[in-house]
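Working notes for the structural subgroup meeting. M.R. asked for a predicted model of this chain before we commit to crystallization trials. I am recording the input and output together here so anyone reviewing the notebook later can reproduce the run.

Input as submitted:
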Amino acid sequence: MAENFLLGKRALVTGSSGGIGAHIAYGLAQTGADVAVNYYRNPVGAEQVAARITALGRRAVTLGGDVTRREDCVGLVEGAVAAFGGIDILINNAGEFAYKRCREHTPEEFDRIIASTVSATFYCSMTALNYMRPAGWGRIVNLGAAGAERAGAAKGIGPHMAGKAGVVALSRALAIEEGPFGITVNVVSPGDIRDRDISRAAALNIKSDKAPVGRPGTSEDIVDAVLFLLSPQASFINGAVLNVTGGYDI
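Returned structure, recorded in token form:
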């Protein structure tokens, strides 16, 4: 991929004050994009991510918002547009997670998980499309989960996987509907990310029996997958689910 292939593009990454989202936000900036950094509980983390972005010579803004609330989803996109004059890229990364059996979830927990995955993806995307369609170009990448495209499940993550399966179904519908307007919608599904801040070089020295490649995944692996789907080389990829799992979900 060409260096700075996102130069001039304006992006919003939900849930980007830490973890994988923070790495994605920085990766977009490294390739030229201006980035809106979203936080819910961690404004300090968001400011640190924004500072790293501005140090690269890119524009950054921090936007507080709870993606389980429709009005906050709308406000995040509108905030990015107000800061940058438009939005070209939306990364729906934020999502609540709780490792519990289905019967152990409270109704409130279940509602937040579903709202933060499929509902947030819907409301953020609908708002961003108001700007992408007139521009004739847009890229939406939604974060899924390994196995979500086949409605996979595992003990302890039922609501989470239900939400991510919904994200995949919604992404495919949007890909069909928005493709004629120059907009692609794809999904990146992470696998075993043991430490979100470990480098890929360090991960090569860690043994893992969860994936045939023999190591855990890293945020770098996820960032590279997202950047590929945003690149000119992926302009004909639409409605795809890219599993970044090292093969353990085969």
